[in-house]
Give the backbone structure.
Amino acid sequence: MLELVVFSSLNGVLYGMLLFLLASGLTLIFSMMGVLNFAHASFYMLGAYFGFQISRYIGFWPGLVVAPLLVGVIGALVERYGLRTVHKHGHVAELLFTFGLAFIVEELVQMVWGKIPVDYRIPGALNFSAFTLFDTTFPAYRMFMLLMSIGIFLGLLVLLTRTRVGLIIQAALTHPNIVGTLGHNVPLVFMMVFGVGCGLAALAGVIAGPALVTQPAMAASLGPILFVVVVVGGLGSLSGAFVASLLIGLIQTFAVALNISLADVMAHLGVTLTRESFGGDLWMATVAQVAPIIPYLLLVLVLIFRPHGLMGNRDT
Amino acid sequence: MSAPALQLVDLHKSFGVTPIIRGVSLDVALGERHAIIGPNGAGKSTLFHLISGRFPATSGKVLLKGGDITGLPPYLINRRGLSRSFQVTNIFPRLSVFENIRCGVLWSLGYRYSFWHLIERLRDARERAESILEQINLAARRDVQAGLLSYAEQRALEIGITIAGGADVIMLDEPTAGMNRSETEHAVELIRRVSEGKTLVVVEHDMSVVFDLADRISVLVYGQVIASDTPERIRANPAVREAYLGTAASLEHADA
Amino acid sequence: MSTIARYWAWIAAALALVALPHIFSSGASITMMSLMGFAVIFALSYNMLLGQTGMLSFGHAVYYGLGGFITAHALNIIGAGKLPIPLPVLPLVGGLAGLSFAIIFGWVSTKRAGTAFAMISLGVGELVAACSLILRGFFGGEGGVSTSRTSTLQLFGLSFGPQIQVYYLIAAWSLACVGAMYAFTRTPMGRMCNAVRDNPERAEFVGYSTQMVRFIAFCTSGFFAGVAGGLAAIHYEIVTASVVGAAPSGFVLLMAYIGGVAFFIGPIIGAILMTALQISLSDYTGAWQLYVGLMFVLMVMYAPLGLAGLLLMHRPLISAGVFSRLLPGYALAAVPALALFAGAVLVIETAHHLLVKASDGPAMRVFWVSYDANSPVAWTVFAALIATGFLAFRRTWPVVSGAWHEATLEARRKLAK
């Protein structure tokens, strides 16, 4: 039991921090530009695929730097030549544009790398186990992912609280209309923000790619959870996104590890339920099986009790 | 004696730690034309938002014809007979002028969320909207998309939507802002006409409009009402003159 | 106005629906027209949200799909119990199912508008899609739920076995639903949907709860989506879990948007076109979804009013009799546009061939031309087509917009007289 708690906590924090890497970029873009980047998870996927491709030629480590930069540049170009054209038609048009973009990226990735997962390998230097606890080993690469995401998180924190750029971003988070009044070149700021946000997503992709599966569906499966994170946290709230990321990371990881069903619970209480009982499937499903729906249930619950999210106060 | 049309009891509003409205109490009698003036940043628009339900008040009460409307959403306040306009034109830009007005009359005629009436067959809604169009002099622009109207026309439409539902308490937020002399005169004439027999609360910067229109004037300075009286006494009030130090000339000017 | 004059468009549509299977009588075209029928209902129901109320939903297939599942289960129950219920009323069951689920989910999701609503609709869509893997009894697991439409009570000797009978059932329901949805746009509720779309704040200040307006629009839309899903279940005689997934939710958005969400007729055009493309284009190219995606993004960028918007913007010019002035400009710009288009298609097709069908070897054929996919000559030609097409199009575009400007002025002058 302790074993399960330790490993699930570690994995949960890891998954949560990865989610936050994506959610932070998404929140930054949303707060400053008012655009919810539907294609954010697609940039994460591009990061993973670029990392994979680069790792085949010059190795994993250069990919860790080059892939996010490349994706960041692509993101900036998308903003400059796509999003900016759409901007005048309003936020719905922008959301639709990024929706179409996600659609295209998935098709292109399928075309270039095929529909089946690619063999994106953990770098040799990290292919050992970090520690063993109660017969279960924790891979070094997971440790690296964890440290890496925490490192980036701390870096972001310093950037936000200790630098001039950070102060501007903070101002923009609380007062969305302020960027324009600061006398900055707003289009350039937007382009940079979008590029950096996409680059962060790609970085998450590069480090997550080898551990999770790098495949064309990875954007479509992660994207919705990412949007749950930002809505549950409160759209536009960075701290809300952080809390929600960890919350969902932990809940999902623990849920996957729990192999009990409602029927088991009821059996302890002396009630026997079988698949033939009313709503049989529901009773027999184990927590692990319902794990995929938990984030969405959480979304619904949060909306019922706190329509603006855990820490949100902005009307969108 | 009947309850005042509008009654504010020790109303407070803070944004974060910044107090904007600091204890406003005010009575507006039925049928009165009441103007709220004050320097920029005094909280006039915020006060309007508190009364009409756009923002929740931090503390205090708002009573409409004796009934408590504090904390109600705007649509419930509107249904109780208070209707307001906005400082920044707030219309339905993609609908025609006529449809804008008709949207304003539907609820008050009892059509609510009806999807079992065809709107073209609702004679009362059409006639009411048409008569409002006449009143605001936009009958000729009936089928134009509202977003394409000139600024002054949009301001008139703004007033039209506000009065369309037949509310008996009407609040106008700077109805003549940004208008030239003759447009302002038209607007004042229009406001006088449409507020006949109703209670009017108006925020206005143009002192000649205020003194021309109002039965009573309240002066709001830094979130507090420093005076509330007839135009003559407001003009003579030394505290008001002090608050308006920089703009005393405009008060003098209004004498003329 | 006489009744006939007022309803001529509807009468013409009804006559066309009756006549179409006699003109396009092959089995494939009758099937395609059946698909178009419920696609039109689905797309229009979607547009009640997006175009009319300003609500962007990424999960509309939930109501379509659940409508389909309930209809299939209802058909099975009716068949097993020999209940005296004829097939033609079953889409109503789908509609009521869609309505019921829209009431449940709409209560939560319409609390918010704008971007948050869009994300919630996505979350609800994912929730239902994920549930379809757990609740195997209801969703039928991998195999889905099969049913038979011929096992119901037969009226007037209609067995609904032959596709042509199903076509007429779908056509009748489509016409009725399109009529009902059109009527909805002309009710006080429909008008307030537009008002909430345009300016939710103002709508609150004329006495309307925007949340209630969104909720009612959502439920109505869910009802019609359910009808479409029910018709689909009757048509296919099987419903699988994929119908509640993200793909159909995205596709209905594409149909409505490409058709044009600002016009009632837009989603009808979009549904017909996209259904035809989905069936025919997928025969020609494996990259058809990429084309659809590109077309969508280009529409969002350059033609946000959709195909209906592009067509209808010519109407004042046609009625003023100045449309012909545009033709030279259009003809001039069409040449580079075609070159650009052909170049882009060739690049996509050749890349697709090399990457996806590498095992077929480099020999390929596009546009009646055979060539070697690896040949540098071919790629040079593609690049040249795209580059010159792009540059020339940019040069000719001012001619088009100039002619447009002239024609509009002329039309206005004529109108003023």
The two ends of chain C are 26 Å apart (CA to CA). Chain C has two domains: 3-308, 315-416. The first strand of chain C starts at residue 145 and ends at 146. The longest helix of chain C spans residues 376-416.
